């Protein structure tokens, strides 16, 4: 990222910020924890961390803005699987041998808190580390208690809850319980099942004044009730669905095709991945959530509907976390003549996602320092389906999102 | 392209602008001529023409700025092959059957003027349609006479010379004759061979007050002598090397990799093409010119040198004008872990290039109307190696070039 | 194909053989009809016809074996869409402009006979050209009448029925009606719905002593009742599912991986196609039939089960009949180390299939001349799921199938 | 590989066979040594070793034929770089962390003998471990002494010299010194520079009665003088150029295209690799040798010349030994219509080559046991440019080569 800037008063002293992660044992979260540890012990550098090299008026961004340093992030969180993160990292196979050895002792010391899961919403991922709270309201109380304890025990200056759990199926977004704060709270008491586990966490975070980030395709805070709740409590919320591989590329290529007036006649995208996320997406309902956030980007960038936009995700184990995304794009150019582009992105899901989750924690804490409440549209650069306060169409083109983000970091007012 | 705007006084009446093309019988030029004719007779639409849908404050760009309409462009030009364009189009195989039939009668009526070629600079492309002018000075005079005749016979309001010839080898850019206007003119008289055919055309255009566009990798106007000459005569010049396929994609993807802090460890690019341009590049000297303009873009966008940046171009006949560009990109991300992207662009050289050449003619005429002399840096969006007045590093990222271009079109002052 | 041979008595005089095609208006059949016409008028050569260059002991195969010449094939058949083949060819977009013009007059003269369809078995393909025969028995009688009429009117020496219809869903192969000839005939009378339309045609052909080829994934003759019926009536049957694109490549690559002891850890295959076949496969039941015939080849060639063998087919319109098959193959080699192969086959479905269908008609007629009844295992080279008389695992490796086929053509006894 | 068989008398007792390797420190040889050690200690299995699972009449091949077991191979050899193999393995980066640890102690104990190199023939690979023998004859004597010492010290029952060195440039194959044994020996004495280092080794091996395998594109034993010498001394020789990646795939795909009568209009192949072999090929003379062995396969398999067959090899470091081969194939099918296949083989050079080198040592020793002298054409399956006794065109199709090889292993007489 390139710096861009305006003068800003500097914050004093290191700022200690907590990341409370839903899905702490997953590949993305484990990679984030390991990565921060490797950074701390000097076994890795900041490569892949988008804000690491950004400067504001020639001053490193953390110093210039008061954003927390990577070294001052403290990660804890929940997972249905209670294994320590060393075991989790072994399973995920993201770290190489040397990294596992170097981060291993620290990872062994991190054990997820009991989670508020619900097999009904995410069928292919289960585990025994479930909180003993059967109703939605009781789950909220348990999560809030975890957040308070985390803040106190770690003496945190800031705290952000980041949802990195596997995708859950969407409830009906028009369900009455999701429309107003009052209805939502009544729903919690009535154990209304249109309130999903991700919403339980989002509500708990907001209630505790904790910034909230949804890195998954789950609906989570993207309902009127929780947006209003965040605004009323002065809490920033951001989401949804981290834009890492294929969709990221799409939001890079589509603006170029538009720039050159090449009409996109069709865009076929298939993804193969073999990690826990892939398994979760074997459940058609979870897949449906994912496809929804992936599908919307093209038409809004191009300015016309692409009738043959097909997106596939298939669980395919041989390469584990090493996801592959193949795109076949059909273009029509001058004189109606056709051309094709194929893109094969052999990426690593967690290696792309973990640094984004880390930056989002730092940025959301900064937003909270700046007193910004509600949906943080300036973080759209991170997401496949950026939330907007009113459900309007967000900006999807990566380069325009970058400009908005960097301007905001440098001190420009948020908003589109 | 997206419109962007500031108020501008509208020009009145249709403006008739000539495009005098070097290499008129080539695939790009023939496609441009055929395309304009198909537009005129309503057999094709403006798809693929980047400025066709641009508006300034809600007003179509031509109307808002006084830019010539597609219908008001008149194309003529030189070629070493004196065949009429119907024959040329048959050979190139770019147009489909129906388009050949519809544009055929008009194409038959267009015959290239005798060209000022020099087998020494472009060995694999020859022909018998050569002007009887052996010295550089005599060639200049012949070209100037052609331009005057074209302007008068067609009663043109504006005239732009566009170089679409096959790539010629570079002379030593430090040759004395290329450093000052005086030295250059002395060189013309002395028939100095560091003055190449493309420079003869460029000089002749500037001397006649005709805007100049270099769409090829040849050095042409990109020498101090001709830049100074253009400035002194108040003539706009633009170049060099149209950015159509692989390099265009590179300047789209590289900014995204930088945005995400993905380090480019290596980028292997190979091109296979079977048209006359591909044949010209079988000559190692011409290839050298091409690779030079292709090589520079990555490092400047990324901000660090990519040590393994390999670019290959191979002549391969089976698909003629249907070029294929394959890229293998090696990325390093978070925790030093590696990922790969492959891009296979099965494009059509002339279909991508012809509309850019057309837009450049319109834009260069607009620049001349606006009284802008010398290097038009705001046209960098069109070129692999955008000229700068002082040889400084140009902007290469497509999205930033687009913004500069559209701002200028809408009336913002040029310059970086 | 390479010739291989043993002496054979030559047949005398041209042999006129009919191809009665189910799905005559489809892309494959239309292309076959057009191709034979273009051959007859000398507007195309035998390129792509696998047996065209085969010799037996130095004598061209037709002459050596008594196989019908391409010029002596007569094509007729059924289709739910009653349009003439010129209209069909226009829609399919397989022929180029010149070919459409040259074959057009003949194609206009060919109109499909009314078909015995059943929307229940192939939901996305419908049409109004349906025979007025509501029960299975009545349909059989109508088809038999068509065959008799065709044979007489065209004074045919031989006749083969080739199923090129869109894929229909499979009935339960264990259904009682499909187990014995008696049960099947009772089922026809009782209008048993486990008897599918493709079985109606197969039964009718056998009953008429007409050779039967199933080029589709439909179950058709591949049930005990019809195999026994063919044997008892002395009729050759062959099938099923023409092996043209991705599966053909699979049966070429997999034997090589086995030869080199490269273990296939996973094989991900996706297909995108936009013709009528693709549309038919949008129906999940038809898709199921297709995936069944595609899935079996790998394990039997490799000698071990490939756990991650995923096959996808997606309807994607931009390229019509120009199908694309993308394979991602994961290999494990020496020291357990991993390698990958990607294959992108941009093929033309009908261009690959039509010549195979033509050769099958000639070969099946030859089998009938040779008095071979029942399943023709030596034709396995043509099929994704070669039928075997007893349902045992067939040979799938293309090169071994080729040897079997050529040996049989040259006169070796059939059988494995 | 599949077994095939005829009864054979079994040899008794383990047979200890030496592999004397030219280029012992290279990636292929180091991987072979490490692999055999990992097999011995049970840290790896026989995956990737083509003959491991072959049986003759139900009996494992080694037992059935008297071929040496993997465990009974002893590897030694020469290298210009005198580092021990542990250091070499570290550099090559082929083994994973655990394999390096397990094979490390053994690898440390293996140090290459001083080599008879000649910078003139292979310019980009140099080292200090050169034998002090300046003339060709003195080099021969040194190599012979090494072979005798190796045989005695290791009490070997058989010995095979395998050339795994980097590619050297070709001398003129028509040079007089290479035509007869007498001329060759005179050339050794006269230090004739048309005798290359690889020929020195080949001659020394044959003179010592040691079987010879040339796994590289160097000319080596493929000259009349050395073939005659091998025949006269009763020594088997085999070569040349191991067929591992792209060419292997070519000899799999081309027969299939021929089988289906798909005409190959063009075949563009590019290779990128970053290991020591790749560096050696930066020398245009060495590259020339390589391209020569790669170029010949297509035309002979297809039966017609492919005019646009382009093969590129580029040195590209990011992936070291992990070579990538990309093929773009243009096919013409029925009705002259075009199709394309792209193959991207992301392979590991040494992982593919090492097991082939190991099998060749075992097989050449078996040939020697069987008393077969001269060129072993039945080993063509292993090579890009299989030697033939008389320089006639060899069989290139992988599946036919496999049949020949397996028949020979099972006891059939050699020869084509």
From TrEMBL, chains A, B, C, D:
Start and end residues of each Myo-inositol-1-phosphate synthase GAPDH-like domain: 245-350
GO biological process per UniProt: inositol biosynthetic process; phospholipid biosynthetic process
GO molecular function per UniProt: inositol-3-phosphate synthase activity
InterPro entries for this protein: Myo-inos-1-P_Synthase (IPR002587), Myo-inos-1-P_Synthase_GAPDH (IPR013021), NAD(P)-bd_dom_sf (IPR036291)
Pfam family, any one: Inos-1-P_synth
Cited PANTHER family: MYO-INOSITOL-1 PHOSPHATE SYNTHASE
Family membership noted in the UniProt record: Belongs to the myo-inositol 1-phosphate synthase family.
Protein's name according to its UniProt entry: Myo-inositol-1-phosphate synthase
Organism expressing this protein natively: Geodermatophilus africanus
